């Protein structure tokens, strides 16, 4: 009972324990967010595109969810631990601390080349490029475009990905390639009304 009262007290008034509690809460939030993001995505993609028994599909969903959840939890823990340690050693927060901590965490957690890590890293890369472009305009390195550049960006992205799919598809990620096969190759094939409108094959 005393232990529970002590824990309850430091959670309400963390004081010197704040950095440790922040790391623990970061682990919790990483695990929960990873599960929330991956579970519905894995559910939809598995039942839409994967073949096999119901048991194998459920296991695949659980496996992907656990991996995403675990990776985010460990990354947040590593990142917060290192940044707080660097802040303590330097006596104040410095901009480079966040990069150093995330660099180490990214290498340790998201450096393994697997399907889940590829998706997460590619997702972040697109956001980084947009963020860096906005920052370059804000800093005055480039002038803000007079018209919305998004239509040209969309045209370039779709033109490039379809060119790669049609002529160099081996270069595309497996999940993207399978989605595009479903959309563009499978729509060329049918043998009856059943697999023309209702069923793909």
UniProtKB/TrEMBL annotation:
Gene Ontology cellular component terms for the protein in this record: peroxisomal membrane
Domain of life: Eukaryota
Protein name: Peroxisomal membrane protein 4
Species of provenance: Artemia franciscana (Brine shrimp)
């Amino acid at each position: 009972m005393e232990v529970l009262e002590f824990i309850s007290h430091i959670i309400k008034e963390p004081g010197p324990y704040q950095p440790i509690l922040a790391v623990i809460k970061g682990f919790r939030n990483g695990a929960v967010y990873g599960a929330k993001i991956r579970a519905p995505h894995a559910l939809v993609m598995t039942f839409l595109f994967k073949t096999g028994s119901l048991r194998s599909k459920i296991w695949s969903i659980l496996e992907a969810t656990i991996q995403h959840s675990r990776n985010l939890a460990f990354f947040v823990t590593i990142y917060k631990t290192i940044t707080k340690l660097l802040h303590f050693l330097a006596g104040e927060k410095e901009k480079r601390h966040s990069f150093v901590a995330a660099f180490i965490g990214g290498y340790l957690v998201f450096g393994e080349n697997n399907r889940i890590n590829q998706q997460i890293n590619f997702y972040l890369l697109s956001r980084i490029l947009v963020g860096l472009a906005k920052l370059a305009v804000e800093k005055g390195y480039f002038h803000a475009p007079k018209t919305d550049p998004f239509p040209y960006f969309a045209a370039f992205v779709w033109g490039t990905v379809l060119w790669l799919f049609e002529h160099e598809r081996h270069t595309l990620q497996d999940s993207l390639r399978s989605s595009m096969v479903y959309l563009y190759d499978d729509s060329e094939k049918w043998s009856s009304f059943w697999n023309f409108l209702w069923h793909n094959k």
